[in-house]
């Protein structure tokens, strides 16, 4: 048997082709298979542990940020409370002249609520008599708007007059009147933290503001005649602006909008092409800001980002406009009053626009709550609020007065006139009560936005595509252009509709973004059409810079994905 096996070996080698070492079949070995399985198991465990470590690291970082934020808020609240108690002691002159070293927050709030705030009206009336007439100073925070939320009867005349006039008033107001306003506004609102249940995959915290009382009637602003001042000065007044901070926006794509809350001067929002809306809270009088919530506001069908946003006048919800294409939702409401477990973003069922992008959404400055949208379908739609804030009835004002896309809409204060600016180079003023156009203006280039002056109700600005004359000022009474302003662009010759403008609270200054990394500031009293100054603000193009209505602050957004905080000093 052995001989046969040995003798057959040469025959096998002869008939079979030779195999290379790589081609020879491997012998199965139970031990090798076990080692391979063990190595695979170890690798899987490593991958799982690495993922777990990354998750817990992010969780730890998030907790650290929350702890740091609350510590900062606690220190600032204690400091404000102590300052208020000291001032209360000074005013009383008896007993509590010195604040305790470690004040109780509960007692402090009772003390603040128990006293009445000095009248901001008296402080403002004293300003013109004692303030030096300087052409180089812009006093932004002295406007009456930020005091709207103070209940009637809470203000009384100041018991003492500062020895040095306005200088003291400017120092005292942020820590007395403004602080009392913020504390009283928060006494009307229950601020709670909850977990977001939006479609965003990240588990982030959101702030909720619940109004315990009935709706506050929106105060009507007072008219101030500014038209006679337009283009009458030979030298501009300079705004002393200092960039104090650049904050990463935490958006993944380019920013689109920024807006300050009209009812709470500590809050503002930003939106971007990633569909996210961030709610921010200012810190240390505008030196910094932190995110309170992140909400996914993408449209349900096409997953489109908000093209434009607008705060509800009560400051409890944010409205976003999208597109009219493919049957997608056109308007969404991000409601900050929704309780845990209920949807925070709702989409309106009505779809009055026919096609194209909805370029602009603006609330009207009228007694009845309503907003207007302008779209690429040439249409302008008025949305009236019904009994429930989630119910809005759309009414098409006109669709044939523009021959091209409506790029911007706004409302005049003294009369129910809706302004619309179109890419057809036309401005239309539509009288809602009469139901027809009150006036039309034909310009020499496309119109991209319209912006009424906050103080002079007859004055409004239109952004155009003409180089060197991008901004035009109009008087609604004269129905004619009274002044033009503009700037040169170094980075590009194109004029983008994404570049926007904003009025200062006193109505005398305009800010404009640019394709360059600068903020242009215009003094409308200056009789030259160039910027009175240009501030280097970002690394890339600036989309918009908005004025804060109660703090000396500009907030800007840029394609460098940062938010700029620029203090006015």
From TrEMBL:
Keyword terms: Coiled coil, WD repeat
Source taxon at top rank: Eukaryota
Is this entry keyworded Coiled coil?
Answer: yes
SMART domains in the cross-refs: WD40
Extent of Low complexity compositional bias:
138-152
Comp. bias regions, Polar residues: 127-136, 156-166
What are the Acidic residues biased-composition ranges?
Answer: 32-42
Q: Which InterPro entries does the entry link to?
A: WD40/YVTN_repeat-like_dom_sf (IPR015943), WD40_repeat_dom_sf (IPR036322), WD40_rpt (IPR001680)
Entry-linked PANTHER family: TRANSDUCIN FAMILY PROTEIN / WD-40 REPEAT FAMILY PROTEIN, TRANSDUCIN FAMILY PROTEIN _ WD-40 REPEAT FAMILY PROTEIN
Q: What is the protein name given in its UniProt record?
A: TRANSDUCIN FAMILY PROTEIN / WD-40 REPEAT FAMILY PROTEIN
